[in-house]
Amino acid sequence: PGYKKLLFTVLLQCGLRLQEIQTLRWIDLIGGSEPHIKIQPRSEWNYVPKKHHCRDIPIADPELWAQLMGRKMMLSRFSPLVFHTKSGKPLTHLWDDTQAIFKKTSVDTVKAHPHCFRATFCTTLLRQNVPMPDIMSMMGHKDVQSTMRYMAVLRKKDLHAKMAKVKFAVA
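^ that's the sequence the OP posted. Answer follows.
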């Protein structure tokens, strides 16, 4: 359904953690010339950002922002949450939804969890040469090691490509 596509697009393009998407409120979407998501405590849902790392995540895709605002026009009177159940409560089945998406592809379902979209977000930023301090800020990381673990997959592929170019002399 369209709302699930939008939900997973937000996960992919913004790198939110599971609880961040589950408790994302309309008031966390900040418009203007540089739309973004404000990650902050959401006491009504007992949510505190991991290690209290509040941050702003840009929504750079105007199409994504337009879709979110279209959803707001239709649904904001039903719930303060952007994505919610029919009764207006936080979604609790994102793990199952992610499994269902992966089952329709050839990707191993062992890796099918909502966090994989966050990992893809981070590795995409790394591939596009976004500066490390900016990536750390968007991910909510205070130390480089937390962000560098997402680089392991890239390094392995790069190393293989570099080794394939090496010509060893065999006597």
